[in-house]
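**User:**
Everyone, produce one record:

**Assistant:**
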Amino acid sequence: MPKTTEIKISNFSGGISDDVRKQSGSEFIISKHFDIFSNPKRLTPYRSLEQDDTDVTTYFVRDFKYASASTKLYGLGQTGAGLTKIVYKADATANGWTVPASSEGNGAVKNGCFVEFKDYMWGFQGTNQLFKWGLLSGTPAITNSVATVGQTITSVADGVINSLGELYIAYNNVVLRIAADGTTVTDSAKTVPTNYKITSLANWGNYLAIGCSPKDSFNGVSKVFIWNYSSELFQETIDWGEGDLRVLETVEGYLVGITDRYLNNATGAGRGSMIIQIYSGGVPQVVKEIFTQALTGKTIPTSKALRNNRLFWSAKIMTNSAGTEYNEGIWSFGRKNVNYPFTVTLDIIDENVDTDGIQGFGVAANYFFIAHSNDGSIDKTNDAATYAFTSIYESLVQNFGDSDTDKVIEAVKVSFRRLVSGETLTVKIKVDDAASWTTVGTYSTVGGTSETFLNIATGDAFPSGKEIKLRLESVGGLEITEWYMRATITNTL
């Protein structure tokens, strides 16, 4: 006899699931450009991004720092000759960059390390130079060789300031210390084995966590070395697993690492993954592993941000073997509070990014700045309440408790905050192995709080099948609170 069954989802705090067929009341396959953290029972669209002023496009800015000493946003780029160039804007929310004549270095730019310390911006340039630019509170000028380092610089990692007021930055396999006086520089304050390169540094209590990947990319196991800033030996050496550890940060006392496992390497045989792990002792635990079905041609940038106890980074994940579909943007890991699980989601997307992807990003309070498309383009969070981007939610595969039986959808209902002018909801479904989504319908009636769909947009009945996925698209800021689906199982025993 036929049996009617239903599914109702009104909690989105679980984030991206490890298994698309998992039975979960709060997880999903993907969400894009939705805030799932502020109110876990709502999908709240983010403002869209807008093109920042093009007056610094030629400088290829890839590192951004919102400096506390001046409340200006600083960017590290390069001149036409590839030399270090620093630009800034006095108001992160507005257009307009300043390009000081005094901000040009004499060495090749080394993007990936750009940090504020003692009223200066610090970084590496050329083959062996440490530079600083400041005073930020006065009329800045560049000092090209604050110190020279003992190796030819081939890679760099961004800096951290410890509880003693010292700055630590890294190049190659070397940690460099700048003392609390802002002048004493110690090269090789600590080194890791020469078969590793340092990719990310993080404060972990009273220790420095040094994230490293194999020097010969994808040829070994990443490590995290724990150091107390003074001992000759490391206090702990953590095996972080196979792949290239790209980002390391502390979230709620846990070390959180983002690993690129064969995302852009032929030894992955066309398949790789992005792995999120946490550590508080013992061995690192995998929280999520998100697979890519094709090679992306690029690795995960080392840019990171920590805001509201959430870790942000950028990545591109291919979703089809042809390499034509992908999920790319600013991902985040965290939770609203201790009453919710740690989760990961694709937080921010930028619809202006081309296939060259994202090269780096930064934050200024709630504003994101994204360098993309490998042509100097910068997009920023819109300074107006504009929601032009499409925010997307894709449910887990729904089988209504049995993947072996046919189902006929009877109704789909979506609820939302009271709709205002300019907001639109689009509902789509995909049944079994369908190659494309079927549009169920759209809704944009001002004042509405829900809409029930009894057939698809053409007026035909819903397609039947064994497994069903739901896709919700929001434009204009429409905030989704719940979805419901009812189906009849037609061949029950």
The chain has a mean pLDDT of 94. The radius of gyration is 24 Å. The chain is about 0% helix and 50% strand.
